[in-house]
Amino acid sequence: MTHAWISTLAPFRPLPVAAMVFACAHPGDAQRARTDAQIAAEIGRYMQAAVTFEKFTGAILVARDGRPIVNRAYGLANVELGVPNTPRTVFRLASLTTQFTAAAIMLLQERGQLSVDHPACQYLANCPPAWQPITIRQLLTMTAGIPSAHGVELGPLQGFPVPWSQWVDAIGRKPLLFPPGTDLAYDYSGYNLLGFIIEKLSGQTYGEFISRNIFAPLGMTHTGYEDPLRIVPHRATGYRQLPGDPITNVPYIEVIRLYAAGGVYSTTADLLRWDQALATGKLLSRPSIDAMHAPAMELLPGKAYASGVWITQRHGRTEIANGGNLPGFLSHMARYPSDRVTVIVLSNNGGGSSGKISGVLSAIVFGAPYEMPYERKAVSVDAAVLERYVGEYRLQLPKLTMVMTREGGRLFMRRDAEPKVELFAESDSRFFLKVEDVQLTFETDASGVVTGVVVHQGDSGRYDVLRGRRESPM
């Protein structure tokens, strides 16, 4: 649903002056000095380049003080019928769902029906012994160590979609990833268990509870929980298109139980209503909202997970955000409370990068540096140059190994057990992938010896950078 290969933001390559916006000495100065019309015009230029060079389709909304600065849509909601995306188009949210699940748990706590410090097994039937120490708070903060269940681990399917009992049996047989509370693993299984708790205590289905207790009170009339039989007006179809490739349908894939971790759909306008409910305390008390946004554990310096959201230092301020990734859909929502700025990006092109676009749109608002989209063109690089990069590169957080190999005049990368993919050179030190939005810059010391690689990944939730240390030559 979301990639786990993540870290902190940094610029990718030296930019021409025309492609940059320069940050001011005080983060708020640029925001105060530039009008909404100027911001909107600059966002328009950036988005046109994103449509042209990165094939963005979807809708964006940038707001300040709850009022949209930009509310636009691009491309087609349904290619075969020629229906355009509009600000009313409904998109699947994927992992953005988790913030609604977290809010539902906080509502139940405010009503005295649970405490987040209670053992989760107090509300779950047939808990495996290893789960007994796990608290609801640890499920919220993804520090419980609950593993995932993959298709092959489920055994012969007992129904379609996969029955809950079969899914629970599969994850219950697996050991915990780590002792509860000792580490962080971004995984949807814990949020599905929170969905069970919501149903047990409310006597309603998960979808009924969040619709009656969150969406309806806030006037989110175009937001709901996925039902394959329901007709949803203005719903977008999901596609996939990478630069240089034709747009294609996304074949149906049984994604095991999106449920409380990924089953909600919405629009940009409804998500702005959600943003304002969090800003004003309309739905939850301020202590509950603060508890949801309290960082639990850092994945990397400056990036920590709270409850349904990541807390990150970006553009010199605190960002509260999360993103989602499903076949054909990408989503990202970022809030900057100190500036009362909100950025929402919903896309029905699963080959793009809503997280990267969100980061740039906020950079435009705050006057921070960013890169304009451009056409990436592969150039020939001498085999001797490629040979310098052959080796093993290790990252500590998250733990990841990248192995670079050369086959003739081609350079390949393999991440842990994933299939190898070819890297294409933009220069002697800068490379990119064609199969996903990833760029790499190899680093050298003063003597020219390769010391590491910086990996820039634009995924569903973030546009982030990894810095890998070279371990040994191959």
Give the count of helical stretches.
12
The level of helicity is 25-40%
CATH level 1 class label of the largest domain: Alpha Beta
Give the overall shape: globular
User: What is the CATH topology classification name of the largest domain?
Assistant: Beta-lactamase
Number of strands: 23
Strand content: 25-35%
**Compute the gyration radius: what is it?**
22 Å
CATH H-level superfamily title of the largest domain: DD-peptidase/beta-lactamase superfamily
Question: What distance lies between the first and last C-alpha atoms, to the nearest angstrom?
Answer: 33 Å
- Classify the secondary structure makeup into a structural class: alpha+beta
Strand neighbour order, sheet with most strands? 2-1-15-14-13-12-11-10
Report the major sheet: 8 strands, antiparallel
Contiguous uncertain segments of 5+ residues: 1-31, 460-465
What is the CATH architecture descriptor of the largest domain?
Answer: 3-Layer(aba) Sandwich
Calculate the mean pLDDT score and round it. Answer: 87
Number of domains: 2
Describe this structure in words.
By secondary structure, the chain is α+β, with helices and mostly antiparallel strands. It has two domains: 1-375, DD-peptidase/beta-lactamase superfamily (Beta-lactamase), CATH 3.40.710.10; 383-472, Beta Barrel (Lipocalin). The chain is 26% helix and 26% strand. It is built from twelve helices and 23 strands. The protein has helices at 27-33, 36-54, 97-110, 136-140, 164-172, 189-202, 206-215, 259-262, 268-280, 286-292, 354-366, 383-389, and strands spanning 58-64, 67-74, 76-78, 83-84, 91-92, 224-225, 239-240, 248-249, 264-266, 297-300, 303-305, 310-314, 317-326, 329-336, 341-347, 391-395, 400-407, 410-415, 421-425, 430-432, 438-444, 450-458, 463-472. The strands form five sheets. An eight-stranded antiparallel sheet has the order 2-1-15-14-13-12-11-10, with helices on both faces. A hairpin with a 4-residue loop joins β3 (76-78) and β4. α2 runs antiparallel to α11, α3 packs parallel to α6 (189-202) and α3 (97-110) packs across α7. The chain starts with 26 loop residues before the first helix and ends with a strand.
